[in-house]
Amino acid sequence: MTDDFAIRTEGLTKFYGDRRGIEGLDLEVRAGEVMGFLGPNGAGKTTSIRLLLDFLRPTRGHATVLGLDPRRDRASLHRRIGYLPGELAFPGRGRADDLLRFFADARGGVAWTHVTELAARLDVDLSRPVHAMSKGNKQKVGLVQAFMHRPALLILDEPTSGLDPLMQQEFLAMVRDARTDGQTVFMSSHVLAEVQHTADRVAIVRDGRLAAVERVESLGRRAVRTVEIHFADPVAPDEFAVLPGVSDVVVSGPVLTCTVDGRLDPLIKVAARHEVVDLLSAEPDLEETFLSYYYHSEGAGDAARTGA
Amino acid sequence: MLPALVRKTWRDDRRTVIGWAAGVAVFTTVYSGFYASFQGVADVKQDALPQNVLDFLGVADLISPAGYLQASVFSLLGPLLLLMCAVTLTARTIAVPEEAGAMELLMAVPLSRTTFAGQRLAAAGTVITLVAALPWAVLLIVIPIVGMDIPLSHVSAACAGLIALVWCFTGIAFLTGAATGRRGTVLAVTGAIAVATYMAHALSDVVDGVHWVRWLSPFHYFIGTDPLHTGWHPAELSVLVAVGAVTAAAGVLLFDRRDVGV
Ligand SMILES: Nc1ncnc2c1ncn2[C@@H]1O[C@H](COP(=O)(O)OP(=O)(O)O)[C@@H](O)[C@H]1O
Ligand SMILES: [Mg+2]
Hints:
Largest sheet of chain B: none
Strand content of chain A: 25-35%
Order of helices and strands of chain A: EEEHEHEHHHEHEHEEHEHEEHEHH
Structural class of chain B: mainly alpha
Helix content of chain B: over 70%
Structural class of chain A: alpha/beta
Largest sheet of chain A: 6 strands, mixed
Shape of chain B: globular
Number of domains of chain B: 1
Helix content of chain A: 25-40%
Bound molecules: adenosine-5'-diphosphate, magnesium ion
CATH architecture of the largest domain in chain A: 3-Layer(aba) Sandwich
Order of helices and strands of chain B: HHHHHHHHHHHHH
Number of helices of chain B: 13
Radius of gyration of chain B: 20 Å
CATH class of the largest domain in chain A: Alpha Beta
CATH topology of the largest domain in chain A: Rossmann fold
Oligomer: heterodimer
Number of strands of chain B: 0
Distance between the termini of chain B: 34 Å
CATH superfamily of the largest domain in chain A: P-loop containing nucleotide triphosphate hydrolases
Strand order of the largest sheet of chain A: 5-6-7-3-8-9
Number of domains of chain A: 3
Number of strands of chain A: 13
């Protein structure tokens, strides 16, 4: 590898006829990091991933994966990539272990103990025919397939879909182990909570464009929360409405409710001038607030500029 | 050791192949073995049909061993069965898994696109050839037993033609599947070409003034030379093989250029 990036795209663009799949994607995934690829359905996550794996050919732009060209170096690249497709369908009607042996052979041999370890970890019975498995078990076989050869780069499209919460936790532990072993993980999701506790950074796509790249720690600070303050005496709304980050101020008698974007400090400082009886602040629900901010508001443009 | 993808292809095609192989072997055995009992009634049947109808059916005469084999095995049913088998199996190389969404995992194997397509085609092509060679194997056994009076080299020439014909249509089917990734398109395009060129071959003998049309038909290169009476025609067989090779190569190239699973 010639640089420190596991994935690097420049202006990567794919149109399906007139329909935009992804446009102008500039993304850098550092070697050894876990990056979440976040966006609502139809945002262009699968399209981007399929471009990286040479299933799709870009309309414009270019991608480098592990320092290699996805098309020209397809063979050597796929030896070092573990890929979990978003829509899993298995070729053939054989048992899961037959299918995994095929992948092991095709990849030039894989320690079988590692395969059985992964299967035990995810609690999936490999002696059963894949086509007769439930969606969750199919997903597990797909995950074993992606992790089995200890690839340098894991590209996982909606990896937790179909997994029950317990298995989702196990999967996330596998991702953390992968990072510990120096593997790079690039995983898409339309649910922030999934990547929040494992990813180092998240890239957020919306409507076929990259909206932001953020460190996960900074996500919490950006959260919009609702604050309710009960004062001993009635207060004037104007005093609070002018504060930075504070909006939707409603005062009814001694009770103030408002929305705070970012730090709470300015609001608290002003509130402290009065006698405060009670203060309620809803835990920032990242799902509802942060993501809707990126997905639906025009503020996404600013967010992109402040990206990590 | 053979490439993993080739072995995987064979394993997945196993049932289909066994079914077709059994069908083709039984068909050839029954029809060729029936010659002894057929001889007696053949005179009657042949008199009942006008010569141009026999021509259209691709049947010169029904009484001689060559005429009988031509009518029973080589004119219609044999090629039909083998072409159906070839198209079915060829569709399964790319179009069927692609429509099923299974290409993403299948192509997760570390191979270039061209190697992938080449191995899929090689795997399917091998079993298709084996099935297409079954009439040959059966006839070389049955003909001496039944006591048909026909040179085995003539039978071999016709059987080789059958394989060459199957290669030709395998190439066409592969090209269609590799270029489009649609099973329905493979069946429709290959089927339409087979029917149209079969009729072109048959009609060119019957209808005046369209004699030249036969040159466009793979069936002409396969059976128009009358191998059961005249033996080997390497030039004609080469045309079929060449068409198969060129279309297959074009399929590999087109597959290397397009989006997969769109
Ligand atoms: N095969 C296709 N043909 C046409 N449009 C497509 C195709 N695949 C995806 N799209 C469109 O591209 C956009 C991005 O889709 P996709 O990459 O699947 O999003 P995501 O994976 O984020 O849900 C969507 O608007 C979708 O409708
Ligand atoms: Mg998707």
